[in-house]
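Components:
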Amino acid sequence: MTKSPWTEHPTRTLRWRPGDRLDAVDPRATPGYHGGKRAGKRLLAEHGAELSDLQERLFAHGRTGGVRNVLLVLQGMDTSGKGGIVRHVVGMVDPQGVRCRGFGRPTPEEQARGYLWRIRNALPDAGLLGVFDRSHYEQVLVVRVDALEPPATWQAHYDEINDFEAEIADAGTAIVKVVLAISPEEQLERLVSRLDRPDKHWKYDPSDLRAREQWDEYQAAYQDMLDRTSTDVAPWYVVPADRKWFSRLAVGELLRHELRGLDLGWPAADFDVQRQRRLLTGR
Ligand code: AMP
Ligand code: MG
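Structure:
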């Protein structure tokens, strides 16, 4: 048996606990992991096979009347690597079993229907792995920082969101919520490199500078979000994200753990296998 490079599993080291401080999180750290970058990349690739197998079980479960599914919620400042998680972690499994949605500024129609409407519409069906690149949590982040709603309105969202998540968890959804914690220094480098590279210009949004200027306000909003909405049915994980290979490895590990926890076997055939074999082969 190969020795695990995890001294402590990310479900323990990264899970948000009451009293935790976001400003105490070191975005360059690799908590619980003592391997290096190369080993980390290799390990993620190795886990891809199991992740893929687990996801196929989930899909089969959904096809045979099962109600379980998984929702991965990704939050983080611009350039924190949300898209990279989708591409490099979620991208390891069969895309037929995945439902990804990104959430930008709401359209007037979405605005009129309330913030949870577009979220409900994007929830994964049974058997699917859903991924939210940003989410309903923007309603207590950008909405708060940019004062898009009066305080009493956005403050009510914490409880509303907890109720909403309890409801979908009850209906069969395993929820994994991840904040990718990046440092302002690393963000600066990533934004500059977007400007340096014409193939990355499409990712650069001049309005990201505004959010960068509001760094401390965002940190405060994230702190309160974590304190108010990390629940037993839908805990938050804060993943150091200055090293992309680590954040991807850690999120892959969190997903693997969650899918394993569903303990899904392969659905039994609802037909007579021996008879079908005889019919097929004439033997
Ligand atoms: P990106 O993730 O780079 O595509 O950017 C999406 C943008 O949409 C970010 O600036 C978010 O802050 C913004 N956004 C997402 N959800 C909301 C929301 N509910 N209200 C206002 N802005 C939002
Ligand atoms: Mg952006």
